[in-house]
Amino acid sequence: MSPSDTASKPPVLLAVFELGGYPNFAPLYAEEGFAVTAVTSARKAISAMKKLRPAVVVAEFNYQSDFRDRTSSLESLLAAAQHHAGTRVIAFYEAESQPQLQRLQGDTPLFATLSYPIDEAALRAALRDALRPQDSGDR
Q: What are phi and psi of 4, to 5 degrees?
């Protein structure tokens, strides 16, 4: 594969559907220029991240009070994303889970968070921002 082939490839977006309950945004992701890969669990997402090196991961924050050492499977996904410099994580969440999400972000910042129902314009804006070159102020 030549360097020009690599340069022309669209950025990869990894969509993680664990519980769902929201529209399939794959067409929107494709309209924004992403090559979309969808998985149904954080474990599958972590495995896919190693192979795909996505530019963006979109996942759900599903607060689970019964987890002993975590608040959500998103926590494991964020830990894995830290090993892939430049990967931006966007999380969807229920408004009533915002305090738990904020605690999670204290340790591992998310690129963007969007509460249900997901506003398509806000999602598009977050995706476009995620593709902008990182400056030295980004984490």
A: -70, -30
Tell me what the pLDDT averaged over the chain comes to.
Answer: 84
pLDDT for 33 beyond 60: yes
The gap from C-alpha 32 to its chain's centroid, in whole angstroms, comes to 15
Instruction: For residue range 61-73, list pLDDT tens digits in order.
Output: 876 555 555 556 7
Residue 121 has pLDDT above 90, yes or no: yes
- CATH code at 54? 3.40.50.2300
139 lies in a domain? no
> How is 59-109 classified by DSSP, letter by letter?
EEE---TT-SS-S-HHHHHHHHHTTSTT-EEEEEE-GGGHHHHHHHHHHS-
Measured in residues, the chain has a length of 139
